[in-house]
Amino acid sequence: MYDKVKIFFCGDFCSTSSAKPITVSQELRDLIASCDLKVVNFEVPLKPELALPPQKRQRFCQHDDVPAFLQGLGFNLFSLATNHTFDWGEEGFKKTKAALGDTAFGAGTYDEAYKVKIVEVGGAKIGFMAVCFAAYTGVFNDVLKHEGLGCAYINDLKVNHVIADAKKDVDYLFVLPHDGIEYIDIPLPETIARYRDFIDWGADAVIGTHPHCPQGWEEYKGKPIFYSLGNFLFNSKEGYDYRATNRPHWYEGLCVVMTIKNGQLSWEVVNTRNVDNVGIEIDTNEDRNEHNKRICGYLKNKNVYECYFNQNCKEQNYRKYMKMIDCSFHPFSLKTATKVLFNKWLKHLRKIDFTDDSAIERLLSHDGNRSILLRSIRKKINNK
Length: 384
Known about the structure:
Blueprint: E1 5-15, E2 23-24, H1 26-33, E3 37-42, H2 66-73, E4 77-79, H3 89-100, E5 104-105, E6 107-108, H4 110-113, E7 117-121, E8 124-132, E9 150-151, H5 157-167, E10 172-178, H6 189-201, E11 205-207, E12 217-220, E13 223-226, E14 231-235, E15 252-261, E16 264-274, E17 279-282, H7 286-298, H8 302-325, H9 334-349, H10 357-365, H11 367-382
Parallel strand pairs: 1-3, 1-14, 2-17, 3-4, 4-5, 8-10, 10-11, 11-13
Antiparallel strand pairs: 1-15, 6-9, 7-8, 12-13, 15-16, 16-17
Helix pairs in contact: 8-11
């Protein structure tokens, strides 16, 4: 029988500014220190010295002292399967991997990306597998292309078999997907189905990241699924005074402590918050607990869930995505239409190709965004 093993999980971490001013409350430090394994989602790579050509999509990077800061807190496992891991190309990834060493997992060559990280502690063999959605770059989502470096693609059927095979070699297996829709505090129906699928194939728990806000969690077949832990701390600016006022729950996070004892897995959820980009502390505000109950409740009531889900999709995503498809058949403001036409004609006069299919490609390659768009179109058609 295994000795008692505790594992600490937290969400996305990014600090473009130096991490030196960041403080962590003693209560939270003690909680992290009480665990044997401490897992963090290392969302953004370190910036290499090599200059890269400009691109439309903004590249994010972390300050060089972030690895030492997190290691100083006790973190000893770093998930690299994110949509930003290759923002600075292979050189940025290599620099990040060199700073984190063998404690990093979830990205690399094809075989490395799809490999389960196995750690032996307290008499138990514990496995971790990290996967990511089809990001802008750096994900092995082309089934015929296994060259170069990247992250494991969440919907590659290979993932199912890796989970099933790994479960034969480990006592407990945790799947860490980086997926979902940003800033929405409930998961997509497709996300729910896929995360439950991981449990069906052998995972003992699923712990998600990427939406940048906490989402609800549930037990499925007696095993926990956390759809998003939100941000542990995410400051992508070079100063500390930036405020993400248009992103609800951006400064809120969930931490999960998994305990293995007497052959049983139990868990505790802890609310945290980012204070002015320079502090992380346990959040004891009762409003957070009420919010958690509410978003978890959506997952238990199909009708309430669908109503809330449709409302969020319409308000936060549908118009944005449809604008990528066309500006002719769907209504937009006069200001938006004028701006689009002006930019297109300006490029035309300068003999520049004004078509931009890259935005559509990014939209359609992201499984979650594509699902929202299709659902919204079908709903609109069915309501006619």
